[in-house]
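Write out a record, focusing on structure:
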Amino acid sequence: MRNNYFFLALYACIGLVPYLGAADKVVPQILYLNIVNASAFIYIGLVQKKKIFKEFSTILNNWTFILYFLFFIWSSITVINSLNVSESIHTLGEIFSQLVSFLFLIYFLSKINNLKKVFFYIIIGLLTIEIVSVIVPYLAELSQDSLTQRDSIFRGYTGNINILAYILLIKFPFLIYFQITKQGYYKLNFLLTVLIVFIIFSIFATRSAMLTLFFITILIFCFIMFIRSFHLKQTFTTLLKPLFLPLLIGLIFNNIESSFSTSQSFQSRLSTLTEIEEDKSLSQRARYYQAAFESFLEKPIMGKGIGTWEFESIPYERLEMKNYVVPYHAHNDYLEVLAETGIVGMILYFGMIFFICYHLLRKILDRETDQDTKLFSIFLITALSVYLIDSLFNFPFDRVIQQIHLFFLLAISIHFLKLKPLKSNLITKIIPLILILMPASIYSSSRIMRASQHQAIFLRAFNLGDYSTPSLGVIDQFEMNYPSLSATSLPMSAVKGMYYITQKKYREAIPMFRKGIKDNPYLHISESFLGYSLDMIGEKDSALYYTKKAFDYMPKNEIHYANYINSLYQLRDSITIKKVFSSLHPDKSSYHDEIYLLTMASLVDPGSTDFTLSGLDINIQSGNDRLKRGYYSLQVGETDMFKADELYQTGMYFFEQENYTAAANFFESANKKNPYELVYKENAANAYLKIGNDQRALELLNDLIDNYNFESPKAYYLRGLILYEQGEKEKACNDLTYAYNKGILQGTRIYDLMCLQN
């Protein structure tokens, strides 16, 4: 009996599995699951011996388990449509591991006499760990008044704030049940309930979690009203202490906390739900939903293949993608499962959940059912509703810890409902197949674990742009075929190709990028860098073909743009460079400006009228030195630009020596060489002001502010001083106010003396 408890605890603690150097926490969790599954099978085999198949056939002969098994089979069939078979098989391996876990959970729970008591201790134990993992860092951050990075700080042991919110909420209904039925430790249950509400409202402040909490509250209230024969007062009294009081306390604490921290109140957070156009997150999800549905319509029966959404989503977002951050989940499991496995897969997967919900609902509605059975049915169906609601906004299907929570609920429901077993002997054929596949599943998960550890090193280098470590000798040993994509759909062969590029091993990089094209034909990072590599070995026409293809597919992607411009530069095609740059307006960034200006500066003569920048909104006062250098080079040429800088530095030397006359002359000379660097003129005005030549200083400052729209607070401050001395107090104070608002210290003091006190 104790061994049964032990294995249930092992499954319940899956969220505690660390990353172990993997790029994605799901990977070590799947490996852990396979190890536990194998251990459970060995244990059951030793206990049951020859009776093992008969035992399983009796316990598992129900529609819920069979529907999930059929979903696994159907998902296997959809691999036919997959553009990346290794990714689909990788996902199938995860589904199979969870299928076996579901099998053993049903088995072990069937051996438990006091199901509710065991369930209580599992919930209380896990909730205590989960709440402590949030509250402790919260209190630490609160003491430092630094609650700005909630998503990165308050993730608990799950590594994700949404997952943690889910696993708290799915246990929430049972805390209410245990309080109503006076089971366990009432005060502890109440405290945990209050803390969950507080965490959801104040610490997490996620809209989906808030909505879910209120939905299940309403659901519980309505169900209990029904079993209480619609007696409102009686229902309210029943739920006052266990449910409504914690909600009220949570709301009060939320408003108190939001008043002294950077967090939003519950009311303000929910108000954004109606602001879809203004809310980037909501509008983005709306696009994902539309994309998933359109993808489903393309292949409505079988879908695009299990595990393919992470790259099949790219064509729908490509025109908006500025980098390689892809919508690798649709943030709606109904639509994502629909897109990947078609209508059949969606019916099978969600059918098993709705099947249980249907029978629980029958228990609730049955007049012959006793009160306690109805109550437990209410809280089981409410907990399952948490999963169904979360599936509308997130992707619990891809999160192992959430799946295990679901299977716990389904397994408990199967035993609680005591449904009649099926007459079919299908289950006797299923079990041997599952057991045969278990060794392959263990091998697959161990290989994926090793690949994910490699990916973590790859991706760290990719994100930092530093490919110096590890050595190429080590990189060559890395797993990049199974799976072939990272968790963010980057072809690992393409990332490996980056290492070769940094070592100038372009010929070795080329096959890596060609493989990357096959692994993910939509991201086009492989085409872009394939083109770059071909450029480096002199195959300029082929290079142009691939870089143009990548740019045309994702025109906002900055890397695709840079590599395409480089290909055009190698061909000295300044005309097309200008057209490409102009086509980006108004969506370009300063990075686009930099690449364009630096490239054009080396292709055209200084000051060329053929390549005027008027109307292209180049902001050379942005403080971006690369942008300025490109602009100045294009306008005055490299020689004059560097000469102007030399004169300016000499002027700064004389200014520091308080030889303001010499400084003014050098600043003016620098301005003549490069009239586009407005700082030269500003410093010349300052130098003239120092030697008492207010008129010349004013001329320069008026030119800067009125003709060049120069926004430097220093220029306004200097002009304000001159105007005040000339008796134009109103104009002077306007300039000094500008300097004051921009935070210049001198401006603040002078503003107080000249404008406020008079």
